[in-house]
Each structure stands twice: as C-alpha cells, then as structure tokens.
C-alpha cells in the first residue's frame, strides 16, 4: 500500500468470537468490504465514519486534461483545450486490514516483521504470537489520521498494543502523551494504547511514517 501502516501486537491468537466482532466492525465502518481470507479485509472506510472531516468543498473536482483532437492537426487552439474530469474524486479511504501469524496467514510477513525485537518484547511484556496490520492506500494527511483512528477502533475490539515507527524528532513529541508504553529502537519506535493513538492524532505535530 502507498500510505502509512500501523501494527497491533497480540499476545495470543484471536478467539473465533473476537474475530467475528473484528469482522463486524470492519463491515460497519466500510463503504466497500471484501474478505480475502478470514481476518484479511480489503475495505474503503470514509474518513467521516472515523470522526475525521475532509475540509474540501463538496463540489471540488480535480482538473484533468481532456485533449479533444488527439493527434489530429486541425486546429491547434482547439487541440489545446482542457476540461475537468466529470467524476468527483472518490473520498473513501482504501485500507488493507489483516490479521497475520501462525495458522491464519501471512506467516512469512509476520516472522520478518518480528525478527530480533528484544526491546519491543521487553516493553510489551510478551512475545507477540500474532499481529494486525492496518495499511492505508493513500498518503495524504487525512489518510494518516484515518489510519491511526481506524487502528484505535480495531484495538477497542481485539485488544493488543499499537506499534508505530517514528520520524526523526518525534520521540520527544509522543513521550508525554497518555497511553505511551515505551519508546524503543533508538527513538525510532513507539508502543502504546488506543488512547495514545487518539491523543497523537490531536497533536499539531502528528504524522505517521510512510
């Protein structure tokens, strides 16, 4: 995906009942929903359903060149005309939200992402058995906010601890936020609760690492 990704670390596999609640949450939030396998959701989530307002005018339309004559040589003035894409931009935010780990899928990705993380394990107090990735398909500021808030909403249902990579200089910003459990990897990683993610979104310096 071309946008940011957050990880939810889990201490144990999700019980079937919790997996069902996870699925119901994604169905309820999504304007498009596809389950590629149990626990792997390809979704579009309107930002407004996460409490995020898109500040653009509702009639905003993206300029799009429309060459009228193609390679014809009739009238260069006419050929240079441009217009607007008659379809409004789709404001729905695309995400992959997927459970990974032994017995559920994407074991290789899980193992690669969790290799050699002793500092993370020390802060967590457990060795993750599974994880959920929340990956955005776009990279605007609204996508960063939506990623954090969607991750927090998922954590409300399945539990776990959020893991986020930090940009240079962000460690001092997040250190004082509520819900921070620890900062690791030479100030390059933060672990926290859903409360932390919601508080971070409200901070003026908020931005996820792409």
Structural features, described:
The chain is an alpha+beta fold and 210 residues long. The chain is 30% helix and 25% strand. The longest helix is centred in the C-terminal third of the chain and has 18 residues, at 141-158. It has helices spanning 16-29, 76-79, 107-113, 118-124, 141-158, 171-174, 194-201, and strands at residues 5-10, 32-37, 40-46, 63-64, 83-84, 92-100, 130-136, 161-165, 180-184, 189-192.
Structural class: alpha+beta
- Helix and strand sequence: EHEEEHEEHHEHEHEEH
Count of helical segments? Answer: 7
Largest sheet data: 8 strands, antiparallel
Distance between the termini: 10 Å
Strand content: 25-35%
Helix proportion of residues, in percent?
A: 25-40%
Please give the number of β-strands: 10
- Overall residue-averaged pLDDT value: 85
The coarse overall form would be globular
Low-confidence spans: 56-69, 77-90
User: What integer value in Å does the Rg equal?
Assistant: 21 Å
- Read across the widest sheet, the strand sequence of neighbours is 2-3-6-7-1-8-10-9
């Amino acid at each position: 995906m071309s946008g940011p990704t957050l990880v939810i670390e889990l201490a144990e596999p999700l019980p079937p009942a919790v997996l069902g609640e996870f699925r119901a949450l994604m169905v309820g939030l999504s304007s498009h929903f596809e389950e590629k396998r149990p626990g792997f959701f390809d979704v579009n989530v309107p930002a407004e359903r996460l409490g995020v307002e898109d500040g653009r005018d509702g009639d905003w339309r993206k300029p799009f060149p429309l060459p009228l004559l193609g390679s014809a040589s009739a009238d260069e003035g006419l050929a240079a005309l441009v217009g607007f894409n008659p379809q409004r931009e789709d404001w729905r935010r695309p995400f992959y939200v997927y459970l990974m780990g032994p017995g559920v899928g994407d074991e290789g990705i899980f193992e690669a992402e969790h290799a050699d993380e002793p500092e993370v394990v020390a802060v967590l107090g457990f060795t993750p058995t599974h994880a959920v990735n929340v990956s955005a398909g776009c990279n605007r500021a609204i996508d960063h906010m939506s990623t954090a808030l969607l991750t927090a909403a998922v954590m409300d249902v399945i539990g776990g601890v959020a893991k986020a990579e930090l940009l240079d200089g962000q460690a001092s910003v997040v250190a004082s936020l509520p819900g921070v459990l620890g900062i690791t990897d030479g100030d390059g990683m933060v672990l926290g609760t859903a409360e932390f993610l919601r508080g971070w979104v409200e901070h003026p310096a908020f931005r996820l690492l792409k």
